[in-house]
Amino acid sequence: MNYSKQDLLALNDFYSSQLLNDTVPFWFPRSYDHEYGGFLLMRDADGSLLDDDKAVWIQGRATWLLSTLYNTVEQKPEWLEGAKLGYEFLNSHCFDSDGRMFFHVTREGKPLRKRRYYFSETFYVIAAAAYAKASGDAEAAANARRVFGDCLAYASGEKRLEPKFTDTRPAKGIGVPMIMLNTAQQLRDTIGDERCDEWITKWIEEIETFFVKDDIRCVMEQVGPDGSIINHIDGRTLNPGHAIEGAWFILHEAKYRNNDPHLVDLGCRMLDYMWERGWDKEFGGILYFRDVYNKPVQEYWQDMKFWWPHNETIIATLLAYLTTGNEKYAQWHRMVHDWAYRHFHDPHRGEWFGYLHQDGRLAQTAKGNLFKGPFHLPRQEWYCAKILSEHFSVNQGSGSTHAAHV
Amino acid sequence: MNYSKQDLLALNDFYSSQLLNDTVPFWFPRSYDHEYGGFLLMRDADGSLLDDDKAVWIQGRATWLLSTLYNTVEQKPEWLEGAKLGYEFLNSHCFDSDGRMFFHVTREGKPLRKRRYYFSETFYVIAAAAYAKASGDAEAAANARRVFGDCLAYASGEKRLEPKFTDTRPAKGIGVPMIMLNTAQQLRDTIGDERCDEWITKWIEEIETFFVKDDIRCVMEQVGPDGSIINHIDGRTLNPGHAIEGAWFILHEAKYRNNDPHLVDLGCRMLDYMWERGWDKEFGGILYFRDVYNKPVQEYWQDMKFWWPHNETIIATLLAYLTTGNEKYAQWHRMVHDWAYRHFHDPHRGEWFGYLHQDGRLAQTAKGNLFKGPFHLPRQEWYCAKILSEHFSVNQGSGSTHAAHV
């Protein structure tokens, strides 16, 4: 069944209201750490603190969220104040002397762990860029651009990071072009950077050329240097929610380029392939890992339902629907939206649980930990409200008030 | 209900028969890689090969198993031939030029990944020692002793390995004294080494002094340098099956020392504490992770049932029963044995599945992968049959035939 205009207006209100009345208030302002800076985000279902350590990814993501709310929803001083706490903590405590960032620090900002990946850096870029726009701080903009340059050097191999594997079996992951694509899109949307468009085009080509397999209707998570499937356990492992996140980054780019038909087609193909492989026909929801040839995967928790693949799939199906009007996407959006809000959402205390068993039973109660924080859910609610508002303002010429209230 | 002599005889026959007619034939001889050496062990439920890569831990463990069967069950040429394949592959392909070992290599033996831990090395020590005893190869004995010396240097900090964490929050894990304790016990039981007794005593003291918490009835997985509980998510995480494995290593030492009462008490306390925390009163089986204060843990799959904690708990409860005669341990043994063989065992195709959901439903079908292979299950069946046989030969003076058939 297609979505009516009423349905879409109701969805816009729903996402907007969930974001501002349920999700954001779970986290803020109580998580502001006025004593040491940054945020205290590792919280149990009732909001009680599980751990006062700080995960650098999540500090960056929370800074991005508060800045983005300030930039696009309302110029609340409380949000700018929080963004400043996060941005300054990142600057003061999360960089090592070699310019790389840590992964995990204490409440006071002492380093606990540094990893071989540069995701801390990419989240810093989107945080600093959004904060620069919110605050007008020129140094924050310069920092965002500088660290983006570092990320470009890591991504291109110009600066080499310590490898986890030997050179025996070279492989490349979809994670790098995906995170860099989104980082560049965020940078472009906030403070702009002349490098972005060219790189965005390159990373999309990289994804399409090497990772999207039309013959077997699949988006690979990793491949050999020539795009070949690596027929070993790790090489065969698919992450449907992750590939679907990549699909909406590309649909977002299609929208930015006036519905570029090639990109619309590419994003929809990626969504189609990975919906087919990821949607759990038995219990509903998106399965975490699948094997490309349906063999057992290494990770034992492969059939669990995690919160974030559902956030990505809600965005991707809604954006595909608004872009194409294809009823199939309305149906898929309704399925994943209904399953996710029924099983993950905690209506009593706000926000979502993170980890369910395959059948939707709660596996554990944490709402914030080293990997979960105020990011995927609020980003989904914010982004869905935004594209619905834009849809009305473009298509019906009547939606500008919606754009204003999210 | 206590175990009768008939019950124990039946258990002896059961473990012995499972080992020789069900578990070992699943793996061997079909996994011998006559072309490249070593073993092809990553297998699905029906024995079909999932991946021809070789996990170094498992190559060592399989070599240990085949050598041990040859040393203690029957001098089958087929087992010695397999042990030789494994031992020679380890020597030819699994050492890096710095003397450290790899974690994961290709079928041909090209290195894929090296890790910061020295578990590959400890499994090499028990493999080479058992193979030396089986083959009479003096060089294998010298290699076992040399690599054991390297492990001692890593364990004591004399040789420093690249750390995963900074020095901000020093911690030590129970894994090091546990694996070293068992490695030394194996070395002593096969080829002997004068360093073993002293170190075994030290590692048991280390476990008792720093990790066993009588006041809260708990065995910690990691602690601060002074034994304090690190009140952060990782520091609070318990691994009941692992601590129970440590309990039987200590009960094994108690048995070796003529039922040393202090060690019997220590091993039983560890088992008691972690049975209370690990046994799932709702569904049965041993839960994978718990938080010391019952908070949510970081790992989302914390309530899954893995095969190996059940193998360790079957051993620990049986050994505790045979050592103390305490009916409680007979009851626990019956509970964990029945639950495990009912849920993990594949009666049609042999061996056990590795990964179940909390309720005992199968999560995935692999019987061999990077972490599972012919080790915990056959070790459990072999060791349980062995201690039952010894029990009869000591207590009833009638069990020597049992000792012979396993």
Question: How does this structure look, described?
Answer:
The structure is a homodimer of 406-residue chains. The longest helix of chain A has 23 residues, at 5-27. Residues 398-406 of chain A have low confidence and may be disordered. The first copy, chain A, starts with a helix and ends with a helix. In chain A, strand 13 (355-356) and strand 14 form a beta hairpin. In chain A, helix 3 (77-93) crosses helix 4 (119-135) and helix 11 (307-324) packs antiparallel against helix 12 (327-343). In chain A, strands 3-4-5 form a three-stranded antiparallel β-sheet. Chain A is mostly helical and 406 residues long. Chain A has helices at 5-27, 56-72, 77-93, 119-135, 138-156, 175-190, 196-211, 233-236, 240-256, 261-278, 307-324, 327-343, 376-395, 400-405, and strands at residues 42-43, 49-51, 54-55, 104-105, 111-113, 172-173, 212-213, 218-219, 222-223, 237-238, 290-291, 305-306, 355-356, 362-364. Helix content of chain A is 55%, strand content 8%. Chain A is globular and about 55 Å long. Chain A has 14 helices and 14 strands. At the A-B interface, strand 5 of A face strand 5 of B.
